[in-house]
Fold this sequence. Notes:
elongated, 8-stranded mixed sheet, 4-stranded antiparallel sheet
Amino acid sequence: MNDEFGVGGIRERVLAGWAAAPVRFREDANAEEDLALGGYLDRVVVELAQNAADAAARAGVPGRVQFSLSGGTLVVSNTGTPLSAEGVESLATLRASAKRDDSESAVGRFGVGFSAVLAVTDEPVILSRTGGVRFSRADTAAAVAEAGVRSPGLATEVRRRDGQVPILRLPFEAEGEPPEGYDTAVILALRDEAAADLVRRLLAEADDALLLALPGLQQIEIDIEGSTRVLTDAESRWYVQRASGVLDESDRERLLADRPTEERSRPYWSILWALPRSAAAESPGGADALSANDALPRVVHAPTPTDEALSLPALLLATFPLDPSRRHVATGALTDHLVEEAAKAYAELLRTRAEDGANVLPLVPIGLAAGALDRALREAILAASPGTPIVRAVEDGALLSPREAVVVEGSDDAFNVVLAPIVPGLIASPRQDRTALDALGVRRLDLADLVDQLGSAAATEPPAWWHNVYGALSAMVTEPLLRESLGTLPVPLADGRLVRGVRGLLLPGNELTADVLAIFGEYGVRVVHPEAVHPSLERLGALPMSPRALLEDNAVRAAVEHSAEADDPDVIAEAVLTVVAADVSHAEGLWWLSDLVLRDAEGELVPANALVVAGSDAAAVLDEEEVAPIDNATVERFGLPALQAIGVLSSLGTVSAADVTLDELPEALADLDGIEDWADDVAPDGSRFGVTVGELLAVRDLDWIVDDAWPRVLELFGSSPELRRALVETVRVVGPDDRPHGALSYAAWWIRERVLLEDGEPLAGRADPAADPILASFLDTAPEWTAQLDPEVRTAVGLVRVVSDLDAAGVELLLDRLADPEREVEESAILRLWSQLGIHEAYPGETPDDVRVLDGSGVTTVMNAGDAVVADAPMWLQRGDLGGFVVASGAAADGLSDLLDVPMAGEVADGKIDGEGTEADVPDLVRELVPEAPDTWWEHEELTVDGVDVSWWVDEDKNPHAATFDGLAKALAWSSGRWDQRHVIRAVLSEPDRSSELRLDATFD
């Protein structure tokens, strides 16, 4: 076997050195072990690919490398400069590189990368077109053992290491050829299955990063036990930015002073940044390429992978100096210089991507650094990028540097388009990019300040332009915080003004024209120009302006109330009537519209509430000194409904108010005649404090009705539902104690208090045409025309049909007339009146001096009230000694006692029975027919109460006492609470033989 590379001489020199100085053996063994088990433990694929790239670079040919794993053997074949004697010596000499004189295209710099194979094999073989060489743990151990025979010290070192020897220091001859098409092949017989698993993983992880790190390689083919994939054309899947250079003499002295000699002889440096082009590249090899950010190797490549973490969303390959482990970048001046160059290259990468239309802000470093080197890179990038044109202007799309750019806080894309012409350098500021913009030092402007300046910058723009501005705000106005910043947004008004601030402005609909709206603007009504209206304004506080909203505006009210003093009242009248005519319901409840002055038939200005329609009911019944007919042309132009809605009368009008507090009446009711007196009268206990009325509907202008018009007026009340309701419905008054009670309506109260007939006496209190004849005989007669009125209207105005219709004054009048001794009043009439008066709630201010009473003879008489008593039980009628009787039962008796100030009979007499009497059983038939009857009664020969003879009595214990059959019947009936059965009981007692008849009759009770 030929020794093409002089490996025998190398072995002799190495073994001689070890034998002469066993410490060198120990050093070589330790160094190789550190490399194989430390920095190169999992780098076999990368290091062999790097060697292939260097070979191709030295040969000046496109590099190709094939990794083939099969049957426990990995074969790595490559093109390029074949193995040479110098190369073999480099492989067998730790820390001595055969590449020291190569150009900057060579990647390896230490000559020790081949030691990575020892992580997976003990028998590496290299076959080249120029020859072969192999390394063997077993053969090296044998050679060392033989040398140890002559060197006890060497033998001792081997024993200390348990026979472990450095494999790569002793090369051996090898025969064979590389596969066809390749210049060199490395053959690794894998140590065990663990080694095979490691190789499989490393081959599976090989990707575009390896191609980009080794520009000398054009193709990497990977065959894992028959499954083949090819990596090629990596730059078609990546955006690449390269930078390189050669250090001059002064830079070498400054930057390489602390680097090893071999590195100082290589003044070349290079930087490569790569960004994946898409999430799924379609070019060859794309399925295995790193083409999405989440698949990026998050480590620095120098230029092969290190353990230096990288947080940037890009691949970095740079000729950073490494520490002896080749896992970490060495600190020092050279690294600092390369960091600055890498930052410039990264900024340039951002610029080129921005020129291609990409948004590069997601590539700006933000957040926390992943390590010291990563921090240095990020800081350098953030220092280099602000001066690089990488952001795009909103106005013309030109690229700007962050130093030239500004953003408006809170503005979105749509509003940025509006602001761009007036904000130089404006760029978009999406929420997700704001942190990056801050990191780049982009200047921020406050949205509120820009909005405030917008009015000056765009003062001459037409309303339609502003409409587009508000449309651009559609998304922003949904954010509460942004709405505050937009508070001073300029808005064009219908009257031509441009005002700042949206809140409270009125947004017109389609019902009104711009010229009408402009009229209101002259009086301070702030109505947005119709061409500028946009829904965004409502979100910012503008109010949708229906005709109702316009009429409710304070400025409109002020204009109406002072229309008589206006320079041109007709213009105001026309504007208001135009709005009302659009929908008369919008004027409902706006009582002050009646102050609007209009032209009457003679051309004079008159408030609407003092105008009537010629020939109408209102014209017929209202005093012509108080009202005037409206100009007919106005009626024809705007229509009667619109005029009635603002107070012009064709019939009687009404005003309404809700939640009325009687101690502070609303303005809407202020013009009603006597309204304060009404409030005093309906307030509980005469105090208006804290008294409320939920809803009050009142008829206006009652004091303008001429005296002879009341028959027609009251007919109107009956024919108009609204007037009828305002008259006949009682008002619900709630006192401070929250207790409600009913009270007269204002109209009913006013008519009762103020309307006098021709005789000078009130209409109220007279007998209703349908009144109870007995009651009517004591009252004044109502006019005949009242018979044609609605019955409820008659009652409301104070005509009396029954006792309960009487007010306090009416009750007083009735009592006075009942006490007139000249009148003859039958017993039946007085008993009927007493029963009704006793339960009536109206009380006069003073009690009568005289009262009509029963005298026991079937007729009535008048006596002093002090001589009368109220008999609330029939037994008291036997007590003629008590005086005249006012007779009623139950609640009516109590009421009469209070009304007449007459005591109850039981209050002036004890009602004590004299003697005890004889107890007797009540007949069975009585108890059968009247089950409520007691079982016993007390019989008296002579029965006296308080010394007065009576025929029957019921004591305080409800025990019946009697001296006669008739008296017993009454006593049993009263004590059992069945006064209606007294005649039946008497029949049973006096005619026992009728028992069968009475029993049968009771069946039908």
